[in-house]
């Protein structure tokens, strides 16, 4: 009955998914990451490292690992994970280390212990029967991550493709129908203390709903949280070789934090200074004799103005004083530093502080007139 | 006049590092705007980027096609020395005191009989995907453990395969069988151009292994940045590296450089402008400041040029992705990069993407979010900020000692890093020691003044020595006017009295001028000039109230196009520097003397009847599609008077044509003053872009030669053509008092760091107050004068003394600097060819 339905549908076009199924699988993982915010994530069979590349943008992740049996593909694709200039100019808040390992997914290597999420996207169907048999023990029993996502083709969907081959890819050792996958997954979950939920991606076309999703997915959650002590006992020899490690700069490192804070501080001080100079200039031009009051920047017209309570910047002769408290009330600076003392400590080398250490001092007179040396050359 | 001009002039007069900073990638530069699948820095694809070979049989055509590769590659294989009989055997001079020099060159050792094996690889059935071709070959058992570089078509091996033609087969993931045929094309010796390029690729790989970060062709250490927060700048220390074949050795060269990055997103920059400027002009100002800037996206580390700003598109609008689906910008960045945009009203930056496929004509456009783009490079406004440039110079102009420290650290890292060493060893390369060599210091020059000669204490600046000396020839200034604003009348009077005081010891007579007071605006100045100049007016002096460029431009335009009279502009601010007035007046007086056609000083020129010519071509400031060709030729044998011409030339046409016109004009002028043609002509050609050497050898030189024949059929002067380069890779240091210092003025290097196929030398003719001096590189590409190398070098050195805008040595021969100054004025202010009536005086100083 079902078969004849499938036949009818197949007569139509070859099935294409938009966005592509692999993109949908990646999106599925990313949505999961966004929701559960894991810190340590590993991708088994990471191949061209595209999923890792997408994952590296997520702030919650601090450790990313990729494992593949093909060393070449890793060396050729590790570039995707390299840091860029932007990572240094605007460092992440939290650290991130990405490591690529070369090795087999059925080796018990301690480098993959203690992860929050391990993904096996379109991996298991590439495993030989023997490897497949060992895999649950290694993944759930040894690595024992908090969550696991496993995806694999749904064999029932295959007749909808016009291709003549049995499996979707020549390297696939098997492709399972829903029953096969779900029983394998449920067994594994039961044996190692996980609960599992099933879902999928790639809706079948109208008329063929019975075949289910094109890709089937199992989401495994560990029933008991990781017992740290247990991990330490697993002192097993490392078998994976490291293909490369990329360490991202982050605000957890003091030099980057210092840079971020001083940039922000200077940028705010310069803004204030400009407003001050403009108001002085207006005063000079109009000669109205108004009191020179510091004009608050317009962009801060929020209702709960944090500046109301903080001391205002002031001017004594040609020196402009910006109280640290004032600077600290800027949300970004507050967020970066946490407390006033840290702010003071971080910017101490970059700015001149007033004698009591409560304000940043800046000269408002342009030193332009001091440049006497550059009058060679052109028309003077 | 403008700050920028000042910076420029300073750079060339004082000879500080000409390019201490990386310029922003220009519009013509390469834009790594490839799709992410191709933006790889992976081990094997890099060869494509570096241009070892790009799927092309013929390495030569490839080198030609890759216009972006470093000029060294493009100029490999141009042999000009072999045609110059007098230097065929020896191109080194012998005069002067020897000086020991340390260089930034490192020896690279190779085994005797070393060869690189180049193979051509074909796949059957053919594979369109380069990626797949590479994967197939790399995964083949035969190559797993071999040292190799493969770009999809060309395979390079350090050891040959057993057979000349090797046939292999492989299976793709889809199960298709592919036959691979590998054919040996050539065994390349280490000095061959392809090999040199290949070594460059290897070294780029090595620097990456040292965790250095590649931008463009150079490598940086982003993990030890120098921060200049008050200017929102970050500096990354780094190296420009290359491997080249010097006299008889393969050398690795490294230059210490810095990448300037701006800690400022385009959005921050825009809101800065919004808060500052008069809001009605906001859009205009924004576009003026931003169009053409190169930006760096924060999420994927690519650079783009801003071609336009689309004010109608907002981040909440949708666009079509490559798969056809529509998505808003905000959602896209959230999904793709987990970035939340904070400003939903920002406009979009528009960048035209360069198409990888040359044949496909369609223009691809990218919309970029200002919030996610960092500004790069230094804008005009930034470079004109004196304080900023000063702070920057302190960090970037390293003195020889600090430079040497960084070089040794790099060499050390290369030698110690196991991966780097492994890479070198697999190819049989040996990283050797830093090269030192012997240069010569040519004798210093005496200055010839009227009635006296003077031996300057310091050749870098002889303004003191010249006090109380009479100038060579100064025509009296009888009929002239000063235009100033009402407010600056006192300043003008003060200047006048100072001018008169300083001018008489110089032997320069100044009559009383007519002083005209006007309102402080451009129109008033121009109108006053129009009303008061007459055919007898010798000079118009303007005291400008502000640095406003349009005022200066309008005056210069009127007085060099409509009513050609020499003019002198002075900023009122300059005249307020009390205590400096006398030295300022001295400088102005000397400029005025030159503008009237006078001569300040001379050096002894042993050759009689010698004309020297300086040519410079500048594109930067002209209207798009045009370049300014400046041509300045001496018109007397003392080499103190000059004929100057500037032609605006469509960049598409060869500049050789206009050279002919200029050359004829210069010869006629010479004939008029000397009643004969010069018997020798030496042309210094500056402004030669990367990879243009071939064009100059093939087209410009023959054109120049034919212009002599055109002047008079019997006339055949002896001619030399010398290409002048202000930038080059070698640096030289000398050890003095136990520290490394810049070599003394007049140091010539004509061995070891030079190239065997050229008649070339380095000359250090300027002092660097700060940082390390960049030697000027001279390449004599044509020479039937037959001067001994000694004489050629000394003559060049003499010519560096003759730039009248600076009482001291400059880094290039004076005619080149004049030509540069001329093109700068034309490109910046006049935008048209100046009147020929001014050709006899240095009106553009």
UniProtKB/TrEMBL annotation, chain A:
Top-rank EC class of the record's enzyme: transferase
Keyword Transferase among UniProt keywords: yes
UniProt record similarity statement: Belongs to the methyltransferase superfamily. HEN1 family.
One BP term from GO: RNA methylation
Protein name: Small RNA 2'-O-methyltransferase
EC number: 2.1.1.386
Key word Disulfide bond present: no
The organism's place on the tree of life at top rank: Eukaryota
GO terms for cellular component: cytoplasm; nucleus
Catalysed transformations (reactions): small RNA 3'-end nucleotide + S-adenosyl-L-methionine = small RNA 3'-end 2'-O-methylnucleotide + S-adenosyl-L-homocysteine + H(+)
Species whose genome carries this gene: Sarcophilus harrisii
Cofactor: Mg(2+)
InterPro entries, per the entry: Hen1, SAM-dependent_MTases_sf
Single GO term (MF): metal ion binding
Function: Methyltransferase that adds a 2'-O-methyl group at the 3'-end of piRNAs, a class of 24 to 30 nucleotide RNAs that are generated by a Dicer-independent mechanism and are primarily derived from transposons and other repeated sequence elements. This probably protects the 3'-end of piRNAs from uridylation activity and subsequent degradation. Stabilization of piRNAs is essential for gametogenesis.
Keyword terms of this UniProt record: Magnesium, Metal-binding, Methyltransferase, RNA-binding, RNA-mediated gene silencing, S-adenosyl-L-methionine, Transferase
Automatic annotation (TrEMBL), chain B:
Key words of the record: Cytoplasm, Developmental protein, Differentiation, Meiosis, RNA-binding, RNA-mediated gene silencing, Spermatogenesis, Translation regulation
CDD domains assigned to the protein according to its UniProt record, in alphabetical order: PAZ_piwi_like, Piwi_piwi-like_Euk
Domain Piwi: residue ranges: 539-831
Keyword Cytoplasm carried by entry: yes
Gene Ontology MF terms in the entry: RNA binding
A Pfam family matched in the record: Piwi
Subcellular location: Cytoplasm
UniProt entry tagged with the keyword RNA-binding: yes
Listed transmembrane segments: none
GO CC annotations, alphabetized: cytoplasm
Ranges of compositional bias, category Basic residues: 1-11
SMART domains: PAZ, Piwi
Sequence ranges assigned to domain PAZ in this UniProt record: 265-377
Family stated for the protein in its record: Belongs to the argonaute family. Piwi subfamily.
Protein name: Piwi like RNA-mediated silencing 4
Organism: Sarcophilus harrisii (Tasmanian devil)
Upper taxonomic lineage: Eukaryota, Metazoa, Chordata, Craniata, Vertebrata
GN (gene name): PIWIL4
């Amino acid at each position: 009955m079902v078969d004849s339905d499938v036949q009818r549908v197949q007569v139509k076009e070859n099935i294409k998914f938009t966005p592509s199924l692999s993109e949908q699988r990646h999106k599925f993982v990313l949505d999961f990451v966004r929701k559960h915010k894991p810190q340590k994530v590993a991708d088994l069979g990471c191949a061209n490292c595209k999923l890792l590349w997408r994952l590296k943008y997520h702030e919650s992740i601090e450790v990313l690992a990729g494992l593949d049996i093909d060393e070449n593909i890793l060396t050729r694709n590790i570039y995707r994970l390299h840091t860029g200039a932007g990572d240094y100019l605007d460092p992440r808040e939290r650290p991130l280390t990405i490591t690529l390992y070369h090795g087999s997914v059925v080796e018990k290597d301690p480098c993959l212990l203690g992860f929050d999420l391990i993904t096996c996207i379109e991996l298991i169907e590439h495993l030989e029967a023997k490897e497949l048999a060992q895999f649950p023990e290694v993944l759930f029993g040894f690595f024992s991550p908090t969550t696991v996502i496993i995806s694999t083709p749904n064999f029932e969907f295959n007749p909808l493709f016009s291709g003549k081959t049995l499996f979707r890819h020549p390297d696939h050792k098997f492709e399972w129908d829903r029953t096969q996958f779900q029983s394998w997954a449920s067994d594994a979950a039961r044996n190692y203390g996980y609960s599992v939920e099933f879902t999928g991606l790639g809706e079948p076309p109208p008329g063929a709903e019975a075949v289910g999703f094109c890709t089937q997915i199992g989401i495994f959650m560990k029933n008991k949280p990781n017992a740290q002590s247990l991990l330490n006992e697993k002192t097993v020899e490392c078998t994976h070789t490291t293909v490369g490690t990329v360490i991202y700069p982050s605000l957890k490192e003091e030099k980057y934090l210092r840079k971020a804070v001083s940039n922000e501080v200077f940028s705010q001080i310069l803004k204030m200074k400009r407003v001050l100079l403009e108001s002085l200039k207006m005063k000079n031009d109009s000669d109205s004799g108004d009191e020179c009051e510091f004009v608050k920047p317009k962009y801060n017209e929020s209702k709960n103005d944090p500046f109301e309570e903080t001391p205002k910047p002031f001017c004594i002769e040609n020196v402009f004083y910006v109280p640290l408290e004032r600077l600290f009330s800027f949300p970004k600076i507050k967020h970066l530093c946490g407390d006033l003392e840290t702010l003071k400590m971080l910017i101490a080398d970059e700015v001149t502080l007033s004698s009591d250490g409560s304000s940043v001092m800046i000269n408002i007179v342009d030193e332009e007139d001091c440049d006497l040396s550059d009058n060679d050359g052109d028309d003077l | 006049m403008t700050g920028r001009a000042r910076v420029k002039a300073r750079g060339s007069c004082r000879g500080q590092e000409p390019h201490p900073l990386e310029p922003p990638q220009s519009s013509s530069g390469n834009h790594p705007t490839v799709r992410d699948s191709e933006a790889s820095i992976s081990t094997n694809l890099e060869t494509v980027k570096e241009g070892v070979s790009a799927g092309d049989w013929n390495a030569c055509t490839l080198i030609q096609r890759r216009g972006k590769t470093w000029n060294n590659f493009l100029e490999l294989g141009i042999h000009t020395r072999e045609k110059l009989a007098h230097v065929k055997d020896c191109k080194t001079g012998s005069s002067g005191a020897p000086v020991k020099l340390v260089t930034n060159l490192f020896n690279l050792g190779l085994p005797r009989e070393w060869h690189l094996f180049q193979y051509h690889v074909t796949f059957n059935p053919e594979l369109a995907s380069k990626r797949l071709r590479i994967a197939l070959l790399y995964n083949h058992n035969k190559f797993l453990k071999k040292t190799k570089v493969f770009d999809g078509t060309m395979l390079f091996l350090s050891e040959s395969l057993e057979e000349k033609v090797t046939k292999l087969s492989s299976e793709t993931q889809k199960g298709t069988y592919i036959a691979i045929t590998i054919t040996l094309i050539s065994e390349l010796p280490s000095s061959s151009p392809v090999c040199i390029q290949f070594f460059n690729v290897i070294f780029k790989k090595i620097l990456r292994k040292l965790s250095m970060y590649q931008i463009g062709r150079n490598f940086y250490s982003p993990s030890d940045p120098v921060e200049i927060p008050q200017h929102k700048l970050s500096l990354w220390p780094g190296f420009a590296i290359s491997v080249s074949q010097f006299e008889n050795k393969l050398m690795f060269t490294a230059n210490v450089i810095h990448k300037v990055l701006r800690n400022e997103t385009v959005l921050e920059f825009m809101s800065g402008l919004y808060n500052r400027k008069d809001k009605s002009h906001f859009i205009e100002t924004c576009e003026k400041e931003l169009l053409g800037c190169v930006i760096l996206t924060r999420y994927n580390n690519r650079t783009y040029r801003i071609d336009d700003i689309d004010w109608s598109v907002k981040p909440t609008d949708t666009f079509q992705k490559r798969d056809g689906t529509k998505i808003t910008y905000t959602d896209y960045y959230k999904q793709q990069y987990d970035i939340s945009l904070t400003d939903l009203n920002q406009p979009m930056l528009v960048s035209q993407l360069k198409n990888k496929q040359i044949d496909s004509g369609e223009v691809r456009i990218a919309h970029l979010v200002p919030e996610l783009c960092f500004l790069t490079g230094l804008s005009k406004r930034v470079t004109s900020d004196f304080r900023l440039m000063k702070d920057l110079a302190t960090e970037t102009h390293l003195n020889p000692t600090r430079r040497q420290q960084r070089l040794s650290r790099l060499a050390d890292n290369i030698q110690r890093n196991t991966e780097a060493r492994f890479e070198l060893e697999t190819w049989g390369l040996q990283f050797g020691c830093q090269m030192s060599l012997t240069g010569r210091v040519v004798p210093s020059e005496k200055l010839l003044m009227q009635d006296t000669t003077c031996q300057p204490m310091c050749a870098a600046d002889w303004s003191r020595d010249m006090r109380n000396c009479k100038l060579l020839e100064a025509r009296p200034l009888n009929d002239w006017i000063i235009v100033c604003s009402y407010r600056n009348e006192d300043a003008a009077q003060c200047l006048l009295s100072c001018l008169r005081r300083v001018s008489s010891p110089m032997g320069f007579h100044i009559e009383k001028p007519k002083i005209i007071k006007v309102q402080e605006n451009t129109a008033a100045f121009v109108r006053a000039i129009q009303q008061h100049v007459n055919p007898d007016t010798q000079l118009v002096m303007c005291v400008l109230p502000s640095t406003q460029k349009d005022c200066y431009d309008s005056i210069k335009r009127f007085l060099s196009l409509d009513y050609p009279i020499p003019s002198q502009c002075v900023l009122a601010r300059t005249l307020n520097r009390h205590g400096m007035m006398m030295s300022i007046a001295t400088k102005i007086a000397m400029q005025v003397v030159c503008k009237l056609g006078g001569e300040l000083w001379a050096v002894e020129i042993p050759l009689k009847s010698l004309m020297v010519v300086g040519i410079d071509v500048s594109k930067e400031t002209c209207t798009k599609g045009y370049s300014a060709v400046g041509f300045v030729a001496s018109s007397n044998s003392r080499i103190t008077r000059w004929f100057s011409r500037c032609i605006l030339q469509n960049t598409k046409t060869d500049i050789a044509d206009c050279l002919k016109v200029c050359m004829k004009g210069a010869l006629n002028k010479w004939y008029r003053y000397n009643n004969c043609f010069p018997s020798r002509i030496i042309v210094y050609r500056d402004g030669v872009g990367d990879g243009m050497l071939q064009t100059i050898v093939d087209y410009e030189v023959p054109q120049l030669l034919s212009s002599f024949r055109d002047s008079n059929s019997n006339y055949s002067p002896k001619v030399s053509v010398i290409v002048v380069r202000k930038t080059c890779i070698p640096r030289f240091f000398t050890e003095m008092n136990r520290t490394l210092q810049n070599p003394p003025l007049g140091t010539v290097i004509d061995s070891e760091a030079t190239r065997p196929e050229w008649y070339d030398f380095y000359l250090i003719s300027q002092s660097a107050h700060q940082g390390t001096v960049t030697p000027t590189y001279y390449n004599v590409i044509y020479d039937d004068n037959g001067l001994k190398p000694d004489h050629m070098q000394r003559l060049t050195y003499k010519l560096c003394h003759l730039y009248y805008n600076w009482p001291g040595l400059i880094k290039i021969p004076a005619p080149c600097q004049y030509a540069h100054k001329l093109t700068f004025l034309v490109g910046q202010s006049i935008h048209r060819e100046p009147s020929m009536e001014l050709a006899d005086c240095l009106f553009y100083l």
